[in-house]
Amino acid sequence: MDPFSAEGELLNMHNAFHQGQYTKVVQFDTDALSAENSLPARVLALRARVALGQAEDVIADVDGEDDVPELVAVKAYAQYAAGDTSEATRSIEQLVATSSESAAIQLLGGTVLQAEGKSEEALALLGKHQGNIEAVALIVQIHLQQNRTDLALKEVQAARRWAQDSLLVNIAESWVGLRVGGERYQQAFYVFEEMAQAAATTSAKSLVGQAIAELHLGRLSEAEFALQQALEKEPKDAEVIANTIVLSVLTGKDTNELTS
C-alpha cells in the first residue's frame, strides 16, 4: 500500500510537507512507523530540511550511505540545492540508469532533470510511476512550465479518478486552475485559503497560494494581507518576496526595500 495514501501511515507527514509545514515534517515522530515506511519517512524529512535551507547538513547526514539508492538521490537533490549542479546531475543520471523503478528516485531525479532543462528525460522517468501522486504533481508542474495546460489538466483528471481525496491532487488541480482562469480562479482560492487560514495547516507557502489566487481575482488588498502574513512567517523566503514585489509593482508601491 502507498504509505502516502489516505490509508497510509505517512499521510499526515506527507500532507504537512505539501502544505509547506517543513519544520513539522522534520519533527514528526517516526518511532512507531512500520519498518517498510522508515525509509520513505526519512527521505521526506530530509527533503523538508532541504526546503528549510539545510542542504549542506543533509549532504553530511547521508554521507557514507551510498548503498541505499534513495539516499544517494537525496544527496544529489541536496547537492543541486547547494549549487553543485553538475555533480548532482551526474549522480541522478547514474541512478536513473540503475534504479529508475524507485519512487524516490523518480521524484528527486525528475526534479533535478527538470531544473537542468531536461524536461523530456524528467517526464520519461516520472512516467514510470505506479500510482505516485507526487510524481503526478511534478508532471503537472512540468507541463505547466511547457505551457501545455491541456496535458497538465489531463494528468489531474486522470489522478482524480484514483486519488480523489488527495490533498496534493487538490493542490495540483489548483495550479492548473490558475492557468485556465475564469471560475477556476475561485476554485483555486478556496483550496489555498482553506490551508492558509486554518491554524493547523497554515504556512508561508499556502499563504502565497492564496495571495496568487486573490491577485487573479483582482482582490489586491486581500492579496497584500495574505503576503504580509507570509512575510511574517518567512521574511527571507524567495517565493514570498518575489510575489510581494509583483504585488508592489501592481499597486505602485516602492520595491527598494524588498530588492535591496
- Count of individual beta strands: 0
Helix-strand category: mainly alpha
Mean pLDDT equals 93
Which strand-content bin applies to the residues? under 5%
Order of helices and strands: HHHHHHHHHHHHHHHH
- Total count of helical runs of at least 4 residues: 16
**What general outline do the C-alpha atoms trace?**
globular
Structure write-up:
The termini are far apart. This protein has helices at 11-18, 22-26, 35-51, 55-62, 69-82, 85-99, 103-115, 119-126, 133-145, 149-162, 167-180, 183-197, 204-216, 220-233, 238-251, 256-259. The protein has 16 helices and no strands. The chain has 260 residues and is mostly helical. 73% of the residues lie in helices and 0% in strands. The model has no long low-confidence stretch (mean pLDDT 93).
Features:
mainly alpha
Summarize the topology.
Blueprint: H1 11-18, H2 22-26, H3 35-51, H4 55-62, H5 69-82, H6 85-99, H7 103-115, H8 119-126, H9 133-145, H10 149-162, H11 167-180, H12 183-197, H13 204-216, H14 220-233, H15 238-251, H16 256-259
